[in-house]
Fold this protein.
Amino acid sequence: MGKLRILALVCCAFLASFAVSTSYSHSNGSASASQASAEKQGNKDAQAGAPALPRGKKLVLKDGTFQLVRDYRRNGERVRYLSAERGDWEEIPAAMVDWEATQQAAKAEEADEDALAKKIHAQEQAQKIETIMDVDASLQVAPGVFLPPGEGMFLIDGKSVKPLGQVGSEIKTDKKQYLKQVLSPVPIVPSKRNVEILGNRASIRVTSGQAEFYLREAPPDPDRATPIVKSSRPGESGPEVELVRATVKGNKRQLESIRSLFGQEEEKRNSISIQRWEVAPTVFRFTLSEPLPPGEYALAEILPDGMNLFVWDFGVDASTGTKPTTTLKKKD
């Protein structure tokens, strides 16, 4: 009986010593972790506690020096200011302050802040545009073919991507119609003007009439220049683009005829139906319902004031060994 009691006491003593040892090790480890965390935080605070340059307003004195202050108040013949360097309120006689120079310094500082704000805004806009361009540059327009970066109109012909350059068109008065007006005793003959492109053939050619087009415009930013030229201000609902088949007359391609009578104008052009799809911000895809027959064409943006005089022109050549393509219906 006595031996069992002694054995029980030994076991209890062993368990008690094991619990104390475990608790000490845990508390010692927690203290070490806390100390390491405190040292790390102390290093951060030491780095963050590096003295920064004081910022404030200039209180210019008549001797040519100035006090850098966060705020100041003039009370009679004394000026009380909060020093940006020392962080305390101090006073000096008001007669020591050059008030005109102080106002000029305030205006100069305000102008510098405005210039800095504009610069930061321009950098942010440029960064947004670069981000959009980077995203758009990864647009796949055909198997293994991606849309090139930059703004403008692109023609997709199979696995070939061809940038279309804008050409300027001209508005010229129809001489025959003008002669009819002169000879007519009654002013009932309408005047006629034609929108024409110089040259009877576009430089960009395709042999497949089943082409697609992608237009990438610049994000709206009045301070940023864009290579896309417009003859008037665009609309607000995205680009309204028409595909126009040109009529070749001599050394020119006629896109549109405008008749005027009694102040009313009628525009007539051979437009071909196309569909517009917005595939990404400021990126639009235009598709055809039928292949294009051989001929001369132009993509023209329709603006609130009429057709943009700067168009994207191209031509379709007949491929050898193919049947003639039926003429497309005009767009209503």
